[in-house]
Amino acid sequence: MYNLNNYVVNNLPDMDSVILEEDIAEVLRNHDFNEGIKFLTNIIQKKRSPNVSIGSESSKKLDVAENSNFNNIISLSCDHLKQCDCEDVLIVDDDVFNLLSLEMLLKPWNLKTKKAMNGEEAINIVKNYSSRPKKCCKKFKAILMDYQMPIKDGVESTKELIDLMKNGKIPWIPIIGCTAFVTKTEINRCFEAGMKDVVFKPLNKQIISEIVHNWIY
């Protein structure tokens, strides 16, 4: 298995302290791809030899070498992400049918799911997920949280998760509320708890598409 950090050290001197394997994977996984490319390109440009003026022949040759190394780094990073088998979305619901339905609705986007049947279980899953030793992923891209559940409901679970995020115990993850209640009171409770969005059951392809585009990709 390749070691991206060693590749950076050998091919881009002095960059090992700036670009590390996890940093590159994090940029490509959690940011708009084009913005991630710009970010990494800027770092490479900052490491340009200070004695080489932009636009000169030496600069052009350096650009070619840097672009080649950069493309190799991106390629290695993308290969690394493809090998990742971590779950992307945590779905929380006390109804098995709803869990399976959400899993099926997310499949067209190649999103792998982790399931929890109440808020307490969801919180424990997020804590364990964030502290896992694997380097590739340490957070979910989103949490789909049911509003009404036994043991710990969606509102209380969201409040606890937001507190953990604020205290740096877990990474920031968008929480989307899923509810059959449509009154203003219930919706306000969801947003006041810290949910980023609220969608109404039954969920369908259109609703899931909006969630994916607004909060995941």
Task: Describe the 3D structure.
With 217 residues, the protein is α/β, with parallel strands linked by helices. It has 2 domains: 4-83; 89-216, Rossmann fold (3-Layer(aba) Sandwich). Helix content is 54%, strand content 10%. It has 9 helices and 5 strands. The protein has helices at 4-11, 21-30, 33-46, 57-83, 96-106, 119-130, 154-166, 184-193, 205-216; strands at 89-92, 113-116, 142-146, 175-179, 197-200. A 5-stranded parallel β-sheet has the order 2-1-3-4-5, with helices on both faces. α7 (154-166) links the parallel β3 (142-146) and β4. α2 runs antiparallel to α3 (33-46), α2 (21-30) packs across α4 (57-83) and α6 runs parallel beside α7. The chain is globular and about 40 Å long. The two termini are 28 Å apart.
Query: In sequence order, what are the helices and strands, one letter per element?
Result: HHHHEHEHEHEHEH
Amino- and carboxy-terminal Cα gap: 28 Å
Spatial shape: globular
Radius of gyration: 21 Å
| CATH fold topology of the largest domain | Rossmann fold
Give the class-level CATH name of the largest domain: Alpha Beta
Mind telling me which CATH architecture of the largest domain this is?
A: 3-Layer(aba) Sandwich
- Number of helices, counting only DSSP H or I runs of 4 residues or more: 9
Largest sheet: 5 strands, parallel
How would you describe this structure in keywords?
217 residues; Rossmann fold; 2 domains; 5-stranded parallel β-sheet; 9 helices; 5 strands; globular
